[in-house]
Amino acid sequence: AQKITQTQPGMFVQEKEAVTLDCTYDTSDPSYGLFWYKQPSSGEMIFLIYQGSYDQQNATEGRYSLNFQKARKSANLVISASQLGDSAMYFCAMREGRNTGNQFYFGTGTSLTVIP
Amino acid sequence: GAVVSQHPSRVICKSGTSVKIECRSLDFQATTMFWYRQFPKQSLMLMATSNEGSKATYEQGVEKDKFLINHASLTLSTLTVTSAHPEDSSFYICSARGARLAGGGDTQYFGPGTRLTVL
């Protein structure tokens, strides 16, 4: 089974609008971390936001927030007030267990296009 | 935030040659480094996990004799693609995590990637 599933290969959003990128995960480990990365056309992976499995509150970082629904095993990324510079690939990732050296599992990504 | 560099950013080589890619952690000691491969419009696929001073752990299907990984110091890991062929053309990305990284939980920080083209 896929560890991370991103079901939206491509998304469009009007500038200044909010957009939600979906991510579901699969793990039996009670301890895990969820991450979102942005990859512009240059290829660099840019860390956006992190959510720990034991965190009580949803993570927020500026215009980025993570809608963490543990029972549904979903970790959707919400980008508010979209900007043209937000156009990029977005990857959801998960690390299982407490060992911070454990590998990341990545989803297949969502291509976001912000329309002026 | 932490900075990870990769060199070169882009390389074009002839089939049969070997190519070395360096991954450096610039402001922290990276106890663990990861090497990923990404084909166009696809996700990152982990190739191997590298711990300083020990042999790399390769993922299933990755040829350890073809993709040589050395993590000789806490700030440097190298990936050598030996006898490269056109099918090895890809985007190679390293990531690192270390003991004193703070903020954003225990995230990994990625290098900018190396685009390899084998003619």
List the total number of helices of chain B: 0
SS-based class of chain A: mainly beta
DSSP helical segment count of chain A: 0
Strand content of chain B: over 45%
Class by helix and strand content of chain B? mainly beta
How much is the average pLDDT of chain A?
93
Q: Detail the poorly predicted runs of chain B.
A: 100-105
If you compute it from the alpha carbons, what radius of gyration of chain A comes out, rounded to the nearest whole angstrom? 14 Å
**Pattern of helices and strands of chain A:** EEEEEEEEEEEE
Q: Helix fraction of chain A?
A: under 10%
Shape of chain A: globular
- Major sheet characteristics of chain A: 6 strands, mixed
C-alpha-based Rg of chain B, rounded: 14 Å
Strand and helix layout:
The complex is a heterodimer of chains A (116) and B (119).
Chain A: E1 4-5, E2 10-14, E3 19-21, E4 24-25, E5 32-39, E6 46-52, E7 60-61, E8 64-69, E9 74-79, E10 88-96, E11 104-106, E12 110-115
Parallel strand pairs in A: 2-12
Antiparallel strand pairs in A: 1-4, 3-9, 5-6, 5-10, 7-8, 8-9, 10-11, 10-12
Chain B: E1 4-7, E2 10-13, E3 19-25, E4 30-38, E5 45-51, E6 57-58, E7 67-73, E8 76-81, E9 90-98, E10 109-110, E11 114-118
Parallel strand pairs in B: 2-11
Antiparallel strand pairs in B: 1-3, 3-8, 4-5, 4-9, 5-6, 7-8, 9-10, 9-11
For the structure shown, list the relevant keywords.
heterodimer; A: 116 residues; mainly beta; six-stranded mixed beta sheet; four-stranded antiparallel beta sheet; 0% helix; globular; B: 119 residues; seven-stranded mixed beta sheet; 11 strands
